[in-house]
């Protein structure tokens, strides 16, 4: 009896609840929002949004006790050093990006879930907050995953609610079409990833990333082809998630058709999910195949940045071009820059991915800030065309200056110092890895990107297309048979939207003044 009891005790795992608190808090608040939606009257549905925001803030605060980066849980009883969940510095950096990005998305979405003045309904509050928080919980779990099973589960928890979020605008044909394209591409990526993972497991007999890394160099000759195919398919599956060329075709239509806060969420958190998974499997699980995935990712990086910039440059001259579609192509180009240090890690080691994390943090702040200004303009110009931003400085100078600063950061031009430093860090990672040709292609693409970023910036400061004479406060009938002219009323900026814009602006300015806050990741061993 004593021996049986001892053996049974050895199988019991202790759970470090503090380590898993960020994704757990987010998941619990998601369930709270879903259940509360059944009882909260429609007039008080705004409380669900504030509950979601409070939950995300609490999840962010839960990262503070973990800042040492030395926590692990769900470890093997036979090998305590092999764990399925690890809260190291890499995990904390990505979780901060994910939870912070979701918090800013929630601020952008708060007004979208309320009834509109024209009597139409906004996004269904209960469903929206549940889906957003569920996806965020999966995205926060993924960087801590250290076995292939947990990695795939976290990937699907992050992806499945995102399908519904894209198509949540009921009765909107574009939203439904965007959701379908996103769904088909993601399902394909998942199928390819699962097939690759199954091949890797069959060849190595291990699901833990460190176990796979140890077993791959010793795979028997008869299983070599199976292991190679598994590695390739797994990397291709995550390349879909990162929107790397040629797996980027779903991005423009999905962003343009999705509700604006959802497009902002996908551009930052969705991209973080793909890159996190790619880094984990490539750098930790597949270092034995670095001579294969290193050159492949370098080529993908070159193709992705070139295709994204070329498409954005070709379309930026169109007067009817959607600002969201331009940001979508910009995100494809930025994905190419983010891939460069991951490719460099094949030559210089895992420390190179710090440049990707630093660049991703910069990109998240300024891209969400750009979406916040687009959301502000969309309140009076629902088409969200680039032409609708003409004269924004005359109408809302603070918003115009903020958007100009965000665009200069994305372009890598002063005074957007953080964008410039982040690009230099990525460029240095390529040079240090001996990828001079990739650094040259990146330099050319940075110049190409200047064109459409500066063109949009210039639009902000042009005189309005049509200056209308002031009209009396009430209305003025010009003559018989003509319509009544009513003076336009400038709507106040909703508090949540103003808060999102203020937070991103302050963060971008602070990082430009003190870029070392995130550039330290580029020189830090995150694993």
TrEMBL record:
Membrane topology: Multi-pass membrane protein
Ranges in coiled-coil conformation: none
Keyword Translocase recorded: yes
Protein EC: 7.1.1.-
Pfam families listed in its UniProt record: Proton_antipo_M (PF00361)
Subcellular location: Cell membrane; Endomembrane system; Membrane
Keywords: Cell membrane, Membrane, NAD, Quinone, Translocase, Transmembrane, Transmembrane helix, Transport
Catalytic activity: a quinone + NADH + 5 H(+)(in) = a quinol + NAD(+) + 4 H(+)(out)
Superkingdom as given in the UniProt entry: Bacteria
Enzyme class (EC, first level): translocase
Main location group: membrane
Domain (NADH:quinone oxidoreductase/Mrp antiporter transmembrane): residue spans on this chain: 145-448
Transmembrane segment boundaries: 20-40, 47-69, 89-110, 122-142, 148-168, 180-203, 223-250, 262-286, 292-314, 326-350, 356-378, 399-422, 434-455, 467-487, 493-514
The keyword Isomerase belongs to this UniProt entry's keyword annotation: no
Subunit structure of this chain's protein: NDH-1 is composed of 14 different subunits. Subunits NuoA, H, J, K, L, M, N constitute the membrane sector of the complex.
Protein family (similarity comment): Belongs to the complex I subunit 2 family.
Role description: NDH-1 shuttles electrons from NADH, via FMN and iron-sulfur (Fe-S) centers, to quinones in the respiratory chain. The immediate electron acceptor for the enzyme in this species is believed to be a menaquinone. Couples the redox reaction to proton translocation (for every two electrons transferred, four hydrogen ions are translocated across the cytoplasmic membrane), and thus conserves the redox energy in a proton gradient.
Listed PANTHER family: NADH DEHYDROGENASE
The protein's name: NADH-quinone oxidoreductase subunit N
Species, as recorded: Streptomyces lichenis
């Amino acid at each position: 009896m004593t021996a049986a009891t001892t053996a049974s005790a050895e199988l019991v795992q202790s759970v470090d609840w503090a380590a898993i608190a960020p994704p757990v808090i987010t998941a619990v608040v998601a369930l709270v929002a879903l259940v509360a939606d059944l009882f909260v009257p429609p007039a008080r549905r705004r409380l669900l949004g504030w509950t979601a925001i409070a939950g995300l803030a609490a999840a962010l605060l839960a990262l503070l006790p973990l800042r040492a980066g030395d926590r692990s849980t769900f470890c093997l009883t036979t090998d305590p050093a092999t764990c399925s969940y690890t809260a190291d510095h890499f995990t904390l950096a990505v979780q901060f990006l994910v939870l912070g990005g979701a918090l800013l998305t929630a601020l952008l979405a708060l007004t979208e879930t309320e009834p509109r003045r024209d009597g139409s309904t906004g996004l269904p509050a209960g469903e929206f907050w549940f889906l957003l928080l569920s996806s965020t919980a999966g995205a926060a779990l993924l960087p801590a995953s250290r076995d292939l099973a947990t990695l795939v589960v976290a990937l699907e928890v992050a992806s499945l609610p995102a399908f519904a979020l894209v198509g949540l605008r009921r009765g909107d044909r574009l939203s439904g079409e965007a959701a379908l394209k996103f769904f088909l591409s993601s399902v394909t990526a998942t199928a390819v990833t699962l097939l690759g993972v199954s091949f890797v497991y069959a060849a190595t007999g291990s699901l833990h990333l460190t176990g796979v890394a140890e077993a791959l160099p010793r795979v028997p000759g008869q299983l070599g082809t199976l292991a190679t195919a598994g590695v390739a398919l797994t990397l291709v599956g995550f390349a879909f998630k990162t929107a790397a060329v040629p797996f980027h075709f779903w991005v423009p239509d999905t962003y343009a058709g999705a509700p604006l806060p959802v497009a902002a969420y996908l551009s930052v958190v969705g991209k973080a999910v793909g890159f996190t998974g790619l880094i984990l499997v490539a750098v930790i699980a597949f270092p034995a195949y670095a001579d294969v995935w290193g050159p492949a990712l370098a080529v993908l990086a070159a193709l992705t940045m070139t295709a994204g910039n070329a498409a954005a440059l070709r379309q930026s001259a169109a007067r009817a071009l959607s600002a969201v579609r331009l940001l979508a192509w910009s995100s494809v180009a930025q994905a190419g820059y983010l891939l460069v240090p991951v490719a460099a890690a094949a030559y210089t080691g895992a420390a190179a991915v710090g440049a990707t994390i630093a660049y991703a943090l910069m990109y998240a702040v300024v891209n969400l800030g750009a979406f916040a200004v687009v959301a502000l303009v969309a309140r009076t110009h629902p088409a969200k065309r680039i032409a609708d931003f003409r004269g924004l400085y005359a109408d809302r100078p603070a918003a115009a200056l903020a958007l100009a600063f965000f665009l200069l950061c994305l372009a890598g031009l002063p005074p957007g110092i953080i964008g410039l430093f982040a690009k230099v860090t990525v460029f240095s990672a390529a040079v240090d890895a001996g990828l001079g040709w990739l650094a040259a292609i990146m330099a050319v693409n940075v110049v190409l990107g200047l064109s459409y970023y500066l063109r949009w910036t210039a639009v902000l400061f042009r005189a309005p297309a049509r200056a209308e004479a002031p009209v009396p406060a009430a209305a003025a009938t010009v003559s018989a048979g003509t319509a009544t002219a009513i003076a336009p009323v400038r709507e106040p900026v909703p508090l949540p939207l103003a808060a999102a814009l203020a937070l991103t602006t302050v963060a971008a300015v602070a990082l430009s003044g003190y870029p070392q806050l995130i550039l330290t990741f580029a020189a830090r061993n995150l694993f």
